[in-house]
Amino acid sequence: MIEQAQENDSKHRRGFAFNALTLLGGVVMPAISIIVETTTHMCAETFFDPIPTTWHVVMVVFVPLAHLQVWLAVRKGTTQRGTLLGLANAVAVGISLFYTIVYIPLLPLAFIALLYAGMGLLPMAPAFALISGLFLRRQLRRIASPVFAVKMSGLAAGLAFALTLVALVELPITLTRVGLKMAASASPEQRMRGLQWLRAVGNRDYLLRACYERTGEATDLIGYLFSLEDPVTTEEARQIYYRLTGETFNTRIPPQRLKGHWRPQDTFDFDPDQGGRVIAGKVKGLTLAGSRLDGSVDADAGLSYVEWTLTFKNNSAMQQEARAHVQLPPGGVVSRLTLWANGEEREAAFAGRAQVEGAYQQVVRQRRDPVLVTTAGRDRVLVQCFPVPPKGGEMKIRLGIAAPLMLEDRSRGMLRLPYLLERNFRLAEAVTHAVWIESKKPLDAAGNNRLQPEQPGTNIYALRGTFLDEDLSGPSGLVLLARASEINEAWTRDSFKKDGELTRQFIKERNTPSLARIILVVDTSLRMRPHAQAIVAALKTLPSNVETKLLLADGNGAYAEGASQHAVSGSPQEIGGQLERASFEGGADNVPALIKAWELASERPDSSVVVWIHGAQPILLQPLEELRQRFERRPDGSTLYALQTENGSDRIEEKLDGIASIESVPRMNGLQADLERLFGQLSGQRGRMEFVRISEKSQPPANSPNVKETSAHLSRLWANDEVGQLIAAREKDGVDKAMKVATEYQLVTPVSGAVVLETQEQYRQAGLQPVDAGTVPTIPEPEMVMLMAVVMVIFLWMLYRQKMLPRRGARR
User: Each residue of 36-89: pLDDT tens digit?
Assistant: First the structure.
């Protein structure tokens, strides 16, 4: 009896230990693993994402729940609902088997991690769940009736069901991985099929995660085996994402899981492109807290100078860099850069582009206070400011921009205000751009309801107003100005030279000879679809005798492989019909079409031009060396007119910076009106007023109602022209000469830039010298103008008194 009792007690203890171990391995550990992963995303951020979708979460939660039900049935010794319990057990075993295979590569690391708070047990949880599930199934069969034991024998069928369920849950990711492999193919046909595949069945979240590092990948085994031999790189995934969606991967935040779901954030916590030239998504906490544009115009001389003061604020916990592409007025050039440091204004150093970029990046690495401005294509610059201090800190800069007016005719000029093309910061709530434009002649708002006339002083006239960001870049950002139509020459003394040279400017009316051929290159990216009808309508204004050829830049890269490299010819109306039938999808590769257009135009360079109508070009899908080489080697060839339909970066124009035969078409009104103006000029139906500037040693022109003396901004504009001509000439030392001129006249050009550093020691280490504050262009405040006038009156009165006193004494 005693031995029997001891044996029963031993069995009871073994049974208790067995129940505890199966409960721990089959229920507790899987539950803890799921809770830890859903709250910390430890595995997803370091290795791969084991539960990338809601369905994965449901599937893994099923495992501990099923094991718990079986464990309770075994403990009670009951077989009620035995068939359902057997099926649940088989499915849980199948799911556990799948995740055990998935986690096998991590098991060696798991054993090492056991030394650290037992965290290594988490990757082992699927294996423990699998073993526990098999033991529970054995126990369930032991207590089952003979009839139920027969039903319990279908483990293979249960596993097949479970693996089928896993396959269905994994299917979208598997199909996406297969589509990625096809879309990265060197064959254009295979690449096209891959893109179509992804558009039809691709998982956008997985595609976005593939654009980042390998962390966060999903768990599909079939897709992994499919791409194991030749996996898609992150760079290829990024290009595919652009071709597929028409936007760059880094304009969307990598998904962050919240309560089992993948949801995008609205901003980046960390800026991966800090110090670089890429402008991606918005940086968390970084805003534009203030913006004012103060301008001065001399309409008779056709000149303008605008100072744009920007204040950035950073509410995040770390230092941030503010980056923006700024669209300048046509023909404009940055001639001043100022940074406020410790409440003091510090002027920039102007030097070669490589030198100022190197100085900026060096100081960024030291986390000090620089600001850098370089060109980013025709009439646009890249502004970089670092660091904007954290926790509510601010950084304030000022850009000085000299620009010629655009002439509608001899009696009307237009000033296109600068605006932000692309930025990595948000606009603070209720922030607007405060605009104040002054002149010595009356200004007319000309129906612009954003501007109101002012007269702050004698012979001082102004327009003021506040602009939303979208208004500044739209037609409201165009200021119309009246000018004396009889004035056809302006001049100034060149203060940058000591030999008394003059800078002179003349108005020239150019009637473009009627062109024989216009090669039209149209970007067929998805974002261009709303603009198709405006392009078609503008084409109808072209004369029927102008030969028109159409090249569609497709989104599948067919041009790059020699396919579809033909232009559609016809009348403007026929070309418009062809364009209406075009499909606009994804992100198009415009480079092959531009190369083909150059070849067609080079057949008759004297009578052909290329008109490129495109959206933002935020990514390069292939190198630009071939296209740049052709423009550089044939500088007197056909002109490329580039018209961008929307705000955003243009990596193609940025890489073609400095090529004189590429002209950026200014955006003035709607797309149709701007194209009609351009087509009218190219077809000879409409004249074009231009300014021609020269520098010469001569006496000032005689006083004449046709001549106007103006400011030193005219000399800066001449210098900007001279830099462009020196670059285009491609002489042996042309770039060095251009850099010297740009530095002497304090200009930001394709070969030069401007940088403000924090200390004189930093300037010395970089081999730079900040400009003398007395040489920078300024806009006097109205109060300063009045004060100067008062001082001049007092000075003249004192001079008069000094002359009159001796005379009075002589009389006495």
Answer: 888 877 777 677 778 877 788 888 899 889 888 888 888 877 666 777 888 888
Instruction: Give pTM, 2 decimals.
Output: 0.78
User: From CA 691, how far away is CA 507, in angstroms rounded?
Assistant: 5
Which tens digit of pLDDT belongs to each residue from 641-693? 999 999 888 999 989 988 888 999 988 888 999 999 999 888 888 878 889 99
CA 606/CA 602 separation, integer angstroms: 9
> In angstroms, rounded to a whole number, what is the distance separating the alpha carbons of residues 664 and 680?
16
CA 319 to chain centre: 20
Closest CA to 206 of 36, 56, 62: 56
- Asked if residue 456 lies in contact with residue 442, where contact means CB atoms within 8 angstroms, the answer is no
Contact status, residue 463 vs residue 453, Cβ threshold 8 Å: yes
**If you ran DSSP here, which 8-state letter would residue 117 be given?**
T
Q: Given this model, what pLDDT does residue 534 score?
A: 95
Find out whether 462 and 443 touch, Cβ atoms under 8 Å.
yes
134 φ, ψ (degrees, to nearest 5)? -70, -40
- Measure CA 756 to chain center: 24
End-to-end Cα distance, the chain: 153
How many other CB atoms sit within 10 Å of the CB of residue 258?
10
Measured distance CA(548)–CA(569) in Å, rounded? 6
Are 753 and 372 contacting, i.e. CB atoms less than 8 angstroms apart? yes
Give CA–CA dist 595/625, Å, rounded: 11
Report the distance separating Cα 480 and Cα 475, nearest Å. Answer: 11
Q: Is 368 exposed, middle or buried (0-12, 13-18, 19+ CB in 10 A)?
A: middle
